[in-house]
TrEMBL record, chain A:
Localization annotation: Cell membrane
Domain of life, per lineage: Bacteria
Protein name from the UniProt record: Nucleoside ABC transporter membrane protein
Ranges that cross the membrane: 59-80, 87-107, 113-135, 142-163, 169-191, 198-220, 251-272, 303-326, 332-349, 356-376, 382-400
Transmembrane among keywords: yes
Bilayer topology term: Multi-pass membrane protein
Stored Pfam families: BPD_transp_2
Any GO CC annotation of this UniProt entry: plasma membrane
Keywords: Cell membrane, Membrane, Transmembrane, Transmembrane helix
Automatic annotation (TrEMBL), chain B:
Keywords assigned by UniProt, alphabetized: Cell membrane, Lipoprotein, Membrane, Signal
Protein's organism: Klugiella xanthotipulae
Any Gene Ontology CC annotation: plasma membrane
Signal peptide stretch: 1-21
Protein name in the entry: Nucleoside-binding protein
Record's bilayer topology term: Lipid-anchor
PROSITE patterns per UniProt: PROKAR_LIPOPROTEIN
Record flagged with keyword Signal: yes
Record family assignment: Belongs to the BMP lipoprotein family.
InterPro entries reported in the protein's UniProt record: BMP_lipoprotein (IPR050957), Peripla_BP_I (IPR028082), PnrA-like (IPR003760)
SUPFAM superfamilies with a match to the protein in the record: Periplasmic binding protein-like I
Amino acid sequence: MSTETVLRPGWKVPIILGVFSLASLLLFLLSGRQGISVFRLSSSGEAVQLPALELPVMASGIVISVLLIGLAGFSAYRVTRAQRTPLYVIVIFGVLFMVGLLVWAFVDATLPVTGLLTGTVALSAPIIYGALGGVISERVGVVNIAIEGQLLAGAFTSAVVASVTRNPFLGLGAAMIAGMLVSFVLAAFSIKYLVDQVIVGVVLNVLVLGLTSFFFSQVLSEDKQLLNSPPRFDKLPIPFLSDIPVIGPVLFNQTVIIYIMYVAVALVYYGLFHTKWGLRVRAVGEHPTAADTVGIAVNRTRFWNVSLAGAVAGLGGAFFTLGSVGSFQKEMTAGLGFIALAAVIFGRWDPIRATLAALLFGFATNLQNVLGIIGSPIPSEFMLMLPYIVTIIAVAGLVGQVRGPAAAGKPYVKA
Amino acid sequence: MNKLPRIALGLGLAGVLIGLAACQQAPQPVETPEATTDYCARMVTNSGGLDDRSFNQSTWEGLQQAEKTLGIEATALVSTNETDLSPNVQQAVESGCQMVVTVGWELAEATATEAAANPDTHFVIVDEVVDAPNVKPLVFQTAEASYLAGYLAAGVSKTGIVATFGGDAQPPVTLFMDGFVGGVAAYNAAHGTDVRALGWNAETQQGSFTGDYEDVSKGKTLAQGFIDQGADVILPVAAQVGEGAAAAALDNGNVMIIWVDNDGFETLPSEYRSIVLTSVLKNTGTAIQDIVSDDLAGQFTSDAFIGTLKNQGVDIAPYHDQAVAVSEELGAEIDQLRQDIISGAVLVESPSAL
């Protein structure tokens, strides 16, 4: 997995893992919580019923803490051998730590595992689409701050078009076109007119926000039934796969938009790293002069791929309306485009990792929800910070220094 | 190659221009009919805008009604973000109108400043208290109505679990939640049942919040979380984010929601009609009309108008399609409870109450 050349792996990762495993041990020993946490793995309507897991808090806590300390020790051992800690160790550590936290928090309460994970997918979907758009755009060398605007334009257009035509698929197409239109402006200004890409992106976000809010209050509110009551996508369970316990209802009993998302993540990953198209995209983003000398039309490649990025992000916008609630609302993307931007960087401009970053954020948001519901002793204002705190710890603590495509943000002028 | 970006820019801008041209013909809701007196009122919205299906909208509807019945002239100044608030209030005052109506706690500071500088102008502030001789606060004891809603929810719940959540922990929001939880407790005390209310702890004043009033998906997943815990009646106090709860309820079946501020049966998209149990109403419009009418008669005071069950400033909406779920006895108990609250026999308490 690691193509980066790091000469001496530092002690940062084992130290962070060590601190978290000690925190986990202390949490269980000092709080002295006794009782049983119930993890419900199946909900009533499912074909295969798994029995609920009943975990005794103290015993599970100690087992988990010991495992965590073991993983931290393994990481330290790797460092003494001048080897990096593999990503899977960090992922296993994170999952174990989370299970421990949940066992502790849900003492004498029931945790609906499928509900927690289904909500995670729903909350992450627009971020994943936005991050894919960001990855494509930045890989080809154009910084895409306008993800928020592309999401919002997609949400607005899909709601209106689907509502007027009564066909959600047309709405989906319209969302892609709307995202592309925003991208056109970004591409034209940054590629042709060499305007600073960050500034164009920020201005576009404000423009789309203003336009959609204006149309929402001046036009859509005039005839909500005609213009702003789109049909929603129905859930489309995939035969057999949706009957798998836990994973089935979470991943394979979803709407079309989510299935398209799985395909999009796979396609972008495969395309970027295993096709001629991807090679060209990355060449243009890393070293446009070199790409030019071998005959790649740099600016045309940038233009069309930024447009593609807009179309992908636009699809994410459609999730807010057609995939989630239906009608468009003012400012309904609520800054998730910027979280998507963070996911791009956190994911090191890699579609799979950016998707994992988006899922982490969605999970933390929904975890905050379920903890709030059973009544956590932490004030709600702090609980609402949880997704952001998790993101900061993950970015600052585990990712560290990252390097984007070398030519991102720099317009290419043929000498 | 050279042409490509230009065509693109053209396409992008053309879309914008077509849109802008289209709104030229769009009817302007802030247009004013001919005035029959020289009395005029200016309203300043908070960042929610006029179509927030909440207090901005109901205040504006009240003023529009006053235009018709009292022959005054009214115009709304729409704030789109926090920096618009103070200039808009200033502009409203400079119009020379006798009355300036500001909506929401965000406008408290601007209202206080302008009220001190313009002692002859009459101000009304909705949902907030500003203490000045020429400012009339318009506030609501929504806890009284949501107490009824909580009692009702506990009565119709089949799973014995109901839930509420808010947009953020502001007193006008938690006031609803306090009342709701109080109503559930009252039902339990009266019937010896053990209906649980999730999402708000009245003692610790802690509960579930979405943290914003924009992202409807958050409302949907949070509501789904409650449904996973067994809740079958949900009261979202989060403006448009509450629509997410309605979507979650519709997806699950057998779950109902209680809308706030206005009658959700009328204001929500029609697909949600079947799941609206009732709504906690804040009759801002009627109150505004009364205040304007008093001012016209020269009877403006700075005493707060407090909307209660007694003066019909707050209430719960009819059950509409869900009337079948409300048994006759339960309906009678609710009516009795309403009388008891009006007479003072039952006290609805909340730290957020005014």
